[in-house]
Design brief:
127 residues; Rossmann fold; 4-stranded parallel beta sheet; globular
Length: 127
């Protein structure tokens, strides 16, 4: 595969999971010549640096993803894949690092509106 077509995929798990949940997808993408990072969000998977009871905000929960994205060279663009509640984390990353993301994939994932309150859709349907 040519260098231009190789992608860097960052795989973000859903709630109650960890990077381990990508154990079948990661090697398939790598076998196709792509770079793949499957990470553990805060207090998930094998991340024992904090207890889940210490995580009180979505920003704290998504911190490992934000650290990875901030460490990338300014000219690198990634493909974000978020599963389930991981959609919240990749949405936050899209807002914070729009120039580092070529595309985001919401795999049966929560797709929030990061500009309005969580109740925005319900309020609009009620009016």
């Amino acid at each position: 595969m040519s260098e231009e077509k190789k992608k860097h995929f960052i795989l973000v798990h859903g709630v109650g999971h960890g990077a381990w949940c990508w154990y079948k997808v990661k090697p398939l993408l790598e076998a196709s010549g792509h770079r793949v990072s499957a990470l553990n969000l805060a207090a998930c998977g094998i991340d024992t640096t904090r207890s889940i009871t210490e995580i009180t905000t979505c920003e704290q929960y998504s911190e490992p993803l934000m650290k990875v994205l901030s460490s990338l060279p300014s000219d690198e663009k990634v493909v974000l894949v978020g599963h389930s509640f991981g959609g919240l984390s990749i949405s936050m990353a899209m807002d914070k690092f729009p120039d580092k993301i070529s595309v985001s994939v919401f795999l049966t994932a929560f797709m929030p509106d990061t500009k309005h309150s969580p109740s925005f859709v319900i309020e609009k349907q009620s009016s």
